[in-house]
From TrEMBL, chains A, B:
Residues 16-79 form the Glutaredoxin domain. Belongs to the glutaredoxin family. CPYC subfamily. GO terms for biological process: cellular response to oxidative stress. GO terms for cellular component: cytoplasm. This is Glutaredoxin-C5 like. GO terms for molecular function: glutathione disulfide oxidoreductase activity. Keywords: Redox-active center.
Amino acid sequence: SRLEETVKKTIGENPVVVYSKTWCSYSAEVKSLFKRLDVQPLVIELDQLGPQGPQLQKVLQRLTGQHTVPNVFIGGKHIGGCTDTVKLYRKGELESLLSAASAR
Amino acid sequence: SRLEETVKKTIGENPVVVYSKTWCSYSAEVKSLFKRLDVQPLVIELDQLGPQGPQLQKVLQRLTGQHTVPNVFIGGKHIGGCTDTVKLYRKGELESLLSAASAR
Ligand SMILES: N[C@@H](CCC(=O)N[C@@H](CS)C(=O)NCC(=O)O)C(=O)O
Ligand SMILES: N[C@@H](CCC(=O)N[C@@H](CS)C(=O)NCC(=O)O)C(=O)O
Ligand code: FES
């Protein structure tokens, strides 16, 4: 679908992408973690896109199996949600992924 | 207002009350913390009450200054959100509050 192609293009062209919701504390945690790591993700707030928001969320589920936010991609690779991202950070792996993706 | 009286009655008659949303991970964290402490809060899922949900959320904001979920009460006292509740737990104060409220 065209929306699916849009998502693939987005994650392919941006080192770090976070699909988020503005009111969601888990989304806020992930955004603030990247900020602390001096990374500027492309943030897509699904609640600010009108009817396209839920459509995007369905496409993301089709592409990644994940229907929740935040939904994080680094170097075009699906990372996961908040818990997954924080886990990788604590293992020291997040920063290597970010360097490999030239995110910083 | 009548809704305000309902809330006051609810928090007055139940040792632990959590105003929550079913999709929210912060709300889930608070509910799971109480479960681990062997406490059965009265949980009110604001997203499952149709138009009354947002109305209740406004009443809670008027009563507590807090417009977010989760919104936690123990022994009729406003505790706060997820971060506040977890903070009290780590300080060892949550369990005293729960005992005092005969929550367990
Ligand atoms: N363990 C996941 C939890 C993700 C989750 O449950 N996200 C919620 C919001 S906190 C969600 O997307 N709920 C459904 C929705 O908002 O559409 C993570 O760490 O990201
Ligand atoms: N620090 C607060 C954060 C509360 C918060 O921002 N809650 C969000 C959901 S995670 C919220 O209620 N957003 C507005 C809404 O859902 O109506 C806490 O620990 O509870
Ligand atoms: S909506 Fe509350 S943590 Fe995501």
